[in-house]
Specification:
Chain lengths: 302, 101
């Protein structure tokens, strides 16, 4: 999208802008600068590599200035601003890459909202788990709006930042494990958390570590899982007496794979003292069928 | 057009009017590098951000060295380098703003 005419005029001023910050007086032009999108900022920076955008996050106003003309005293003030330890988001100067600007704004708006599934435990979580679960909830919200590409990108970012444990926890959240844990298992415990906050903090974070740990026995069937490979792993788990083994699949191809695995392991289920349960939830809004298999160790059996 | 003419069509603000507000300074990759250098850091031959005095590489919030091409944002707290990765920014929010949650 080309830059509007009035902005072309600003760019032609070049060095005459000096150390000023510019904002159009005309309401229409002001709105146009307020709504300047990333593509336009891209064109702007290619047209004149010195002109940058300063965004006032509270008013939403944007200002233009010449990066090479920023006074040294201003750079010193910005540098000093960054040297201070801070724990609040008031009066905060941020330096943001334009490629990252929109994603950052969208996510921060989401981060500040309460998420019902984790609200009861959020304040007790270690920062890493706070971050992963909030990101997971964000993925879920993107999926609910059919923004599959954006959701996949966030999942990849979770993997890059937190590794396989982060990916596992995200998948467990998306499958509803965390919300069920909060709603049922932790329902009564959170009421005593206020009186024993530090103990509860230790407890809840250890619990999440265990869930991730045992997630070795929770399979999210996806390419390139092979029937034989997974069946052998499950049989190994049953022989070890693992209390809970689960398979989750979405999409016709993955469901077929899971059905074959379930057929393979079902031959050993009774012998190893397990119960096999199957679950085919109704087709979701994303038009993707799902199929889940649960192997539960029976008490007082083998 | 002279600055007088410019002043008729545009509000001209000084930096002191905006430095105490919540602002984003939005830059492209080259401009990020320019401002990082103006703020006292340097870039080594492989593109990693370094302390010019000690030559030690700076780290992002995930404790890994950070290349200028990977730089998504710089946040105060102090001087936290965020990669172009939403999870990196999320970790920053979770780590630095616990009290606001």
């Amino acid at each position: 999208m080309p830059l509007p005419g009035w902005l072309q005029i600003v760019l032609s001023y070049g060095k005459k802008i000096g150390s000023w910050l510019l904002n159009p007086k005309n309401e229409k032009d002001n709105r146009s600068l307020k709504n300047i999108d990333c593509k336009q900022i891209n064109i702007l920076s290619k047209t004149n590599v010195n002109i940058i955008v300063i965004n006032d996050r509270d008013s939403g106003n944007n200002y233009l200035c010449d990066i090479n003309a920023i006074p040294k005293s201003v750079i010193d003030k910005i540098t000093k601003h960054y040297e201070l330890e801070r724990d609040d988001r008031k009066n905060q100067i941020r330096i943001v890459n334009r490629e990252f600007q929109n994603g950052l704004l969208d996510y921060e708006k989401y981060y500040d909202k309460k998420v019902a599934s984790i609200d009861k435990i959020f304040m007790y979580l270690d920062p890493e788990y706070k971050s992963i679960l909030k990101l997971s909830a964000y993925v879920e919200s993107l999926l609910s709006k059919a923004q599959h590409n954006e959701a996949q990108k966030v999942k990849e970012d979770i993997g890059l930042q937190y590794g396989s444990n982060g990916r596992k926890l995200c998948n467990l959240y998306l499958q509803g494990y965390i919300s069920s844990m909060v709603d049922s298992y932790l329902k009564d415990l959170t009421s005593i958390a206020k009186f024993k906050e530090s103990s509860f903090k230790v407890y809840i974070n250890n619990l999440i570590r265990q869930i991730i740990q045992y997630s070795e026995w929770i399979f999210f069937i996806n390419n390139p899982y092979k029937v034989k490979e997974v069946s052998v792993k499950i049989l190994e788990g049953m022989q070890k007496g693992i209390l809970y083994i689960a398979l989750h699949s979405a999409g016709y191809k993955n469901i077929k794979t899971t059905e074959k695995i379930a057929e393979e392991v079902s031959k050993q289920v009774a012998k190893c003292g397990y119960e096999l349960k199957q679950d085919r939830p109704p087709i979701t809004d994303s038009l993707c069928p799902t199929y889940n298999v649960f192997l539960i160790k029976q008490k007082n059996k083998q | 057009m002279e600055m007088k003419e410019l002043g008729k069509k545009y509000n001209l603000l000084g930096w002191e009017e905006i430095l105490d507000k919540n602002i984003n300074i939005i830059l492209n990759n080259e401009q990020m590098e320019l401002l990082v250098k103006k703020m006292g850091c340097a870039i080594d031959v492989e593109g990693f951000i370094i302390d010019p005095a000690t030559k030690e590489r700076k780290h992002s919030i995930d404790s890994a060295e950070i290349n200028i091409k990977e730089l998504g944002a710089i946040m105060p707290g102090s001087t936290v380098f965020i990669k172009k990765n939403i999870a990196s920014f999320s970790q920053y929010l979770a780590e630095y703003y616990e009290k606001s949650q």
